[in-house]
UniProtKB/TrEMBL annotation:
Organism: Sphingomonas paeninsulae
Stored Gene3D superfamilies: 1.10.530.10, Bacterial muramidase (1.10.8.350)
All residue ranges annotated as the Transglycosylase SLT domain in the record: 41-351
InterPro entries xrefs: Lysozyme-like_dom_sf (IPR023346), MltB-like (IPR043426), MltB_2 (IPR011970), SLT_2 (IPR031304)
Annotated protein name in UniProt: Lytic murein transglycosylase
C-alpha cells in the first residue's frame, strides 16, 4: 500500500491508488488540525486561492474552481481510517506476504498484463530504449495501480485535496497538491478529467498533481500530456518517474532465493536507519555482494545475478519460505510506493508479464 508511509513517498515521487494505501497520521509542517464541521472552510479556500495566484495560477481558474468547493467529510474520514506509524512494539506481527501476493499477482492480472504487453510492444520498446526502464515494469506499475485502467477513482480532485488541506494534519502537503491541481487545470486539462482517488491520486499511473507536473511526459507525440486517457502518455510518464528515482538500466530488481536454516540473521541486521518509512527498510538486511550471499548458502531458485552485484535479503514470509535478494532497483520501486508487499508484487508481476 501497500505498513506504508505512502503520502511521504509520493511527496517525493508520486502516489499510488488509494484502495491499498496507508498514510502516516502525523502532521507535516506543524499545522494543527482544525474542527471538522466545515466552519471556516470558505475563508481557508480564499486563502489558498491567493496562494495559487501568487504561484502563477490564473485568476480565471481560481475563480472557476474556488467558489464551487465544499468540505468533503467523507474524504477526511477515509484518511483518518487509514492505519499508520510503527507497530505498538517490537513484537507486533507483520502480515504474511503470500495472501497479498495471491490477490495482486493473480492469474487474471497476469493474463491481462500479457495482453497489454504484447499489444503495446512497439511503444514500450521505444520507451525502454530511451529510459532504460524495462517494458514489463511499466506495465506492472499500471496493473498494480489501476488494474490497467479499470479503476482510477471518481472523486473530484480539487475538492478532495482542499478538504484534506483544511483537515490540517498534513496541511502543507495537501495545500500544495491542491494548488498543483489548479495548475493542471490551467494547462487546459478539464476538472472532470482529473478525477481520482480520495487521497489525490489521479490518472492511469495514479500520480499526485505535483508528480504530474514533475514527471509526466507526452508518449504519443500529440503535444499533450494526458495520463488519464492515453496509455502511451501514462507508460512514458511511469518510465520517467523511475528514471528520476534513479533506475539503473540492465539491472534486475532481484531474484528469489533459498535461505539455509543455519543462516545467522543477527549478524546481517541492517544498522542504517532510513530517513523515510524506516519500518519498511528495517526488514532488509545489510548489503552484501551476491558472491558473499552464495558463500553463506543463499542460492537463487531461478535466474541468477552477477556475483559482484550488491543485494540485501528480504524474507517477507519469514524463515523457511521463499526469500529474495534485492538490488538497488528494488528500492526505486519502493519510491513509487514505500511498501515491501507492493514493491514485491510489482516485481513479480513484471516477471510474469514478460515471461508470457
Amino acid at each position: 500500500m501497500r505498513g506504508k508511509t505512502k503520502i511521504a513517498t509520493k511527496l517525493a515521487f508520486g502516489l499510488a491508488f488509494a484502495t491499498a494505501m496507508i498514510v502516516p497520521v502525523t502532521t507535516l509542517g506543524g499545522s494543527p488540525a482544525v474542527a471538522q464541521n466545515g466552519s471556516g472552510f470558505d475563508a481557508y479556500m480564499a486563502q489558498l486561492g491567493r496562494q495559487a495566484i501568487a504561484q502563477g495560477v490564473t485568476r480565471q481558474t481560481v475563480d472557476a474552481v474556488i467558489p464551487t468547493l465544499t468540505f468533503n467529510q467523507r474524504v477526511v474520514d477515509l484518511d483518518r481510517a487509514q492505519p499508520g506509524g510503527n507497530p505498538a512494539g517490537p513484537t507486533s506481527a507483520i502480515p504474511a506476504f503470500a495472501p497479498y501476493r495471491a490477490k495482486h499477482v493473480d492469474a487474471a492480472r497476469i493474463a491481462r498484463g500479457r495482453v497489454k504487453y504484447q499489444a503495446l510492444r512497439g511503444l514500450l520498446a521505444r520507451v525502454e530504449r530511451e529510459t532504460g526502464v524495462p517494458e514489463s515494469i511499466m506495465v506492472s506499475i499500471w496493473g498494480n495501480e489501476t488494474n490497467y485502467g479499470s479503476y482510477t477513482g471518481d472523486f473530484d480532485l480539487p475538492r478532495s485535496l482542499a478538504s484534506l488541506a483544511y483537515d490540517g494534519r498534513r496541511r502543507d502537503l495537501f495545500a500544495q497538491e491542491f494548488i498543483d491541481s489548479l495548475k493542471i487545470i490551467d494547462r487546459g486539462i478539464s476538472r472532470d478529467t482529473i478525477k481520482g482517488s480520495w487521497a489525490g491520486a489521479t490518472g492511469l499511473p495514479q500520480f499526485l498533481p505535483s508528480m504530474y507536473l514533475k514527471v509526466a511526459r507526452d508518449g504519443d507525440g500529440d503535444g499533450r500530456i494526458d495520463i488519464w486517457n492515453s496509455e502511451a502518455d501514462a507508460l512514458a510518464s511511469i518510465a520517467n518517474y523511475f528514471v528520476q528515482a534513479g533506475w539503473r538500466p540492465n539491472q534486475p530488481w532481484g531474484v528469489a532465493v533459498n535461505v539455509p536454516a543455519s543462516l545467522n540473521r543477527a549478524a546481517l541486521v541492517n544498522r542504517t536507519v532510513s530517513p523515510r518509512c524506516p519500518r519498511v527498510h528495517d526488514r532488509h538486511t545489510r548489503w552484501l555482494t551476491v558472491g558473499e550471499w552464495r558463500s553463506l548458502g543463499v542460492t537463487p531458485t531461478g535466474r541468477t545475478l552477477p556475483d559482484s552485484t550488491l543485494a540485501s535479503l528480504l524474507e517477507p514470509d519469514g524463515p523457511g519460505a521463499t526469500a529474495y535478494l534485492l538490488t538497488g532497483n528494488y528500492r526505486v520501486i519502493l519510491d513509487y510506493n514505500c511498501s515491501n508487499f507492493y514493491a514485491l508484487s510489482v516485481a513479480l508481476l513484471s516477471d510474469a508479464v514478460a515471461g508470457g
